[in-house]
Design brief:
Helix content: 25-40%
Low-confidence stretches: none
Number of domains: 2
Structural class: alpha+beta
Mean pLDDT: 94
Number of strands: 10
CATH class of the largest domain: Alpha Beta
Order of helices and strands: HHEHEEHEEEHEHHEEE
Oligomer: single chain
Radius of gyration: 18 Å
CATH superfamily of the largest domain: ATP-grasp fold, B domain
């Protein structure tokens, strides 16, 4: 895969968020619309193409924890905010190799996580669970060894303690489990077909209406022994 080959040639073992989501999209995993902006001249055209309100993020393979570093700005509503946000984010990146990602703002009250780890014994293993800030706190996840079928994906959903979050609750629509199943199946396929991928972390997957959409993603590559 060209994106992976390019990263390895550059001596990188982590993909940027934008690169990771390009790969996810190739595997029919729905991702938020976004544009990479590398200089201030691109700010207004990108913001207008995505549409307000939008989210701005520092985007670099060197950055894995954007929120902690103040590199995620939410609910940007006009050109002035976009220009100011671009300036501040770029400054906080200390002139590194990254750019700023302009992303549509996905509205949703429910956040999930989908991931993949490459186990030395079992190979690619798919993870599903409660996402957002609760992933590390509650560790409410289920696992399956890839490949999986739709039946397996549905079982994974039913195994987490917070499974009712997928139902129609408090006026929210039930989550599209068919779409979510395909995402889990395709993450497994992605791991099986690309031996150089060590880890995938899609967090959060925000439920917009009933549709799951990957809003952030990280892909880690295998390092030579």
């Amino acid at each position: 895969m060209d994106i992976i080959d390019k990263a390895l040639k550059e001596g990188r073992y982590a993909l940027s968020e934008y690169e990771a989501k390009q790969i996810l999209a190739l595997y029919d995993i729905p991702v938020a619309r976004e544009i990479v902006v590398k200089n201030s001249k691109g700010v207004i055209p990108a913001a207008n193409e995505i549409g307000y309100p939008l989210v701005m993020k520092g985007c670099s393979p060197e950055i894995t924890h954007k929120t902690e570093q103040g590199l995620v700005w939410m609910d940007i509503r006009d050109d002035n905010e976009a220009l100011n946000g671009f300036k501040k984010i770029s400054a906080r990146m200390n002139g590194g190799s990254g750019a700023v990602l302009f992303q549509e703002m996905i509205a949703g009250q429910r956040e999930l996580v989908i991931g993949l780890i490459r186990d030395p014994q079992f190979g690619p293993c798919i993870m599903f669970g409660l996402g957002g800030i609760f992933t590390e706190i509650l560790k409410d996840v289920s696992f399956r060894v890839a490949p999986i079928e739709k039946r397996d994906a549905l079982e994974m959903m039913d195994e987490i303690k917070a499974r009712k979050i997928l139902d129609a609750i408090r006026g929210l629509e039930p989550v599209d489990r068919d779409r979510l199943s395909k995402m889990l199946i395709n993450v497994g396929r992605l791991g099986l077909e690309n031996d150089l991928i060590k880890e995938i972390d899609i967090n959060p997957v925000i439920i917009s209406g009933k549709r799951p959409i990957a809003v952030d993603a990280l892909i880690i590559l295998q390092q030579d022994d």
